[in-house]
Amino acid sequence: MLIAGNWKMYNGPAETAAFCAELRERDLGGVDVVVCPPFVSLAPAVQLLAGTEIAVAAQNVHWEPEGAYTGEISAPMLKELGVYGAIVGHSERRQWFGETDETVGRRTSAALEAGLSVIACVGELEEERERGDTEDVLRRQLSVLEPHENLVVAYEPVWAIGTGKTATPGMAQEAHAFIKSLIAVPVLYGGSVKPENAAELLDQPDVDGALVGGASLDVDSFTAICRAAVPSLS
Ligand code: PGA
């Protein structure tokens, strides 16, 4: 079970240091935990969480090791910082920053080759689900990925991200089973995961963890979600 916190563009270095100092004191129930701060906060997160079981990942990574790519960060640079992995292809990158299936594939391959772990995000828009196109969209988004021991997929229906609308456990299970029929990797669920709904989502047989946005920004709610992944604690 893997619980990942996607901090998005929240928590600068000072807030990150305070958050991590608090998080490292918590009993997270023994699940695999990763936090994904903004680039400028990766170094303090790595420092504060050194010697714990909590890993640190970036929110994006470029496909070239270096070059004239203003504003981008490469996998070797992240490795040098002690970062464990990166999110790739989050729907906010696809929606606002021109991320395509092709660039998601390139970023993912380069990161895996460099020895990073990757959380590759997929998920349909609300109108795509209403049109009955969910499986076609997932098939297209997954076509650029190949199974790898350090790859996990996050299924994040776009209509459930930051909206408070969560996929029902049954909807999540159905989509996860479909994804696993195409690519044999663990699949995290993301989209308005909260302490109140985490246990029933994580209880689904093909839900292998969660990618948590808003609720990962509060130490108490993030801790509660991690512990919800352990049936004996929830
Ligand atoms: P949310 O975000 O939990 O705030 O819906 C999830 C994500 O964007 O990864």
Coarse structural class: alpha/beta
Radius of gyration: 17 Å
Bound molecules: 2-phosphoglycolic acid
Total count of strands:
8
Strand arrangement, major sheet: 1-2-3-4-5-6-7-8
Q: List unreliable stretches of 5+ residues.
A: none
What share of the residues lie within helices? 25-40%
Reading the helices and strands in chain order gives EHEHEHEHHEHHEHEHEH
Distance between the termini: 14 Å
The overall pLDDT, averaged over residues, is: 97
Label the overall shape.
globular
Tell me what you see in this structure.
By secondary structure, this protein is of the alpha/beta class. 39% of the residues lie in helices and 16% in strands. It has ten helices and eight strands. Strands 1-2-3-4-5-6-7-8 form an eight-stranded parallel beta barrel, surrounded by six helices. Helix 7 (134-142) crosses helix 8 (169-182) and helix 9 runs parallel beside helix 10. The longest helix is centred in the last third of the chain and has 14 residues, at 169-182. It starts with a strand and ends in a 6-residue tail after the last helix. The model has no long low-confidence stretch (mean pLDDT 97). 2-phosphoglycolic acid (PGA) binds next to strand 8.
